[in-house]
Design brief:
By secondary structure, the protein is mainly β. It has one helix at about 5-30, and strands spanning about 30-45, 45-50, 55-70, 85-90, 95-105, 115, 125-135, 140-145, 150-155, 160-165, 180-185, 190-200. β2 and β3 form a beta hairpin.
Length: about 210
């Protein structure tokens, strides 16, 4: 039977390893912040942004930041099998009335799949899912969306903004451009870091 003195070094190593793992998990799960606003300045990799709420924030872009342009498209581009995101408002009958729709490129299929609360407006929601069926209705397009844990019926009124993402580059990140950063990581020192920036092209304000 091992002596206690023999076990102590092992226990210390195990405890130290557990601390490292816990710290690593904590670092990987840094809280994120969603930012909508207008770019006011660009200083190297640091963006000065006037947020939708009127505050001024600085966001540091990673060296390998992915830049996507948000561009207008049409309802006719939404077909069965499309992977889309619907910013919606709940209706009394359980359906969602779209206030914006974005079509994901094929290489982003499955991104953030599911249904969740959203902050576009009070009580708004986001549904990222595959279009199972789309039928023209009396007050817009009726779309059945299916995701891994369920489905949602969505009505898309004729005046709903429809956009998609296309690959962009840093030249689109300039003062005056509107953007949305879905998940800026909040670092331990309070700074914000983004590895993806979505910029409205041709003056578009990302509607999601």
């Amino acid at each position: 039977m091992p002596k206690l003195t023999d076990l102590i070094p092992r226990l210390v190593v195990a405890a130290f390893s557990a601390c490292i793992i816990a710290s690593s998990v904590s670092a990987q799960q840094a809280p994120t912040v969603r930012i909508r606003g207008t770019i006011e300045s660009v200083d190297g990799n640091t963006l000065g942004i006037k947020t939708r709420e009127g505050s001024d924030v600085k966001v540091n872009m990673t060296d390998n930041v992915a830049v996507f342009a948000v561009v207008k498209t049409s309802l006719s581009e939404i077909k069965e099998g499309s992977y889309i995101g619907v910013t919606g408002m709940p209706e009394p009958d359980g359906t969602q009335r779209a206030i914006a729709v974005h079509i994901f490129p094929e290489n982003q299929r499955g991104a953030a799949e599911g249904f969740r609360p959203w902050d576009a407006r009070a009580n708004s929601t986001m549904t990222n899912a595959t279009v199972a069926q789309t039928v023209k209705g009396t007050d817009g397009q009726n779309i059945l969306m299916k995701y891994k844990d369920g489905e949602k019926n969505v009505v898309v009124p004729p005046d709903t903004p429809i956009v998609t993402f296309v690959a962009g580059d840093k030249s689109e990140i300039k003062p005056g451009a509107k953007l949305i950063i879905f998940a800026a990581a909040k670092k331990e020192d309070g700074s914000l870091e983004a590895n993806r920036v979505n910029v409205g092209r041709d003056g578009i304000t990302p509607p999601m």
